[in-house]
Structure formats: structure tokens, C-alpha cells
Amino acid sequence: MFLENTVNPKEQFGWIEVIAGSMFSGKTEELIRRLKRAQFAKLKVEIFKPMVDTRYDDEMVVSHDANEIRSTPVPAAANIRILGDTCDVIGIDEAQFFDDEIVTVCNDLANKGVRVIVAGLDMDFKGKPFGPMPALMATAEYVTKVHAICTRTGNLANYSFRKSNNDKLVMLGEVNEYEPLSRGAYYKAMLKEKVKMMDVESEKIDAIKKNTNG
Fold it and tell me: What is its EC number (predicted)?
């Protein structure tokens, strides 16, 4: 459960909140909820997202359930430090797509008294820690892990399984490309993919042998 930070007027430092989880887990939805609460409180809020993320809109941060808030797309983490220098609260979506400098940027802003709220995938489609997310989670005061529902078992899901054969680390997509899976379902799906690859390699070897013998 997320607990609102108690504010000590003598403490001139901000803090970092990280919202992490798999695809379709509600990360962006929770980010938007917190940012809108800050806007209602008349705080100066700015939202940033990586320029590469244009799935729903070029400028809006949009959740899977169509909840949205206006944002500023930036090509690199360094831009956030410059553009968000006078803000009370800064939101950052899809943090896993930013360069490693995002960690320093978030900490520098927090040290200046800014509340920084970051949302992103904690693992890539291979089940490995994704980009700068581990470092952000380690340095944050608050970390919220959100979960999707596994499409195969109905259990809580924390893995993002890629259904296509594309092996690129960064591939934007929705339900046609990804599905949230529980640990057990993900393990079985990855095992099935490995067996399929072994069958393909075996067929290639048999074909080479056949051509060589022929």
C-alpha cells in the first residue's frame, strides 16, 4: 500500500516514488492518478515520457483504459532536468526506455525538493531487469509493485510475454504482441519456445546433412 509522505517544512528535500510492474498492470493509470491529485492541490506538475513512445498519442500519457494526461515527450533524460527544474511534482512514464542518466536526473531533482513519480516495466520480455529501473527502485523512497491478471491462469501476473518472434529489446506493442503471465505460465511458455527453437535447429541440421549427402 502506498502511504502519502508526511511533509516536514524544515526538510527541503523531495523524494522518488517508483511504480513498477508488467504490461497491463495499471502502472500508467496509477501514475496519472497521483499526478492529477497533485494538480488538484494546485502544485506545479510536469509529465515526461520518452519520445519513442507514440502508441496512443504523440504528447499525451495514456493508460490502457484510456485515462490520459498531457505530457512532454523528450529524447533523453537530460532534458527532464532542464524542463522540470521549477516544478513541484514531476511524473515520468515508461522510464525503462530512458538512458541510464535518468537515475541521476531523478535524484538531482529530488535533492532540490521535487517529488518525482516514475512508472515503468521492471522486467523485459525475457524476464530480465529492464534498463535503469532496478537502480531507480533501489534509490527511491517508495516502490509500488502492481500486477496484471494472467491471461492463462487468472493468477496475478508479473511477466510480460512477447507473442511475436521479434527479438529486439525495445518493441512497442499491445495485446497483439504481449500478454501478462504468472510465474508458472511464463515458465511454461518460455520452455515451449525453447523446444520450438530446438526443433527448428534440428530441421536445419537434417536439411544440411541431406544436401551434403546428396
Answer: 2.7.1.21
Residue 93 and residue 48 in contact, taking contact as beta carbons nearer than 8 Å = yes
pTM here is 0.80
Q: pLDDT (tens digit, 9 = 90+) per residue, 20-30?
A: 999 999 999 99
Spatial separation of the C-alpha atoms in residues 155 and 23, rounded to whole Å: 15
Cell of 15: 523524494
- Residues 43/11, Cβ–Cβ less than 8 Å: no
- What CATH topology corresponds to 15-213? Rossmann fold (3.40.50)
Segments of 77-152 assigned E as strands: 89-92, 115-121, 142-146, 148-149
Q: Which residue type does 41 have?
A: A
Domain range list for the chain: 15-213
Q: Which residues are identified as catalytic?
A: 94
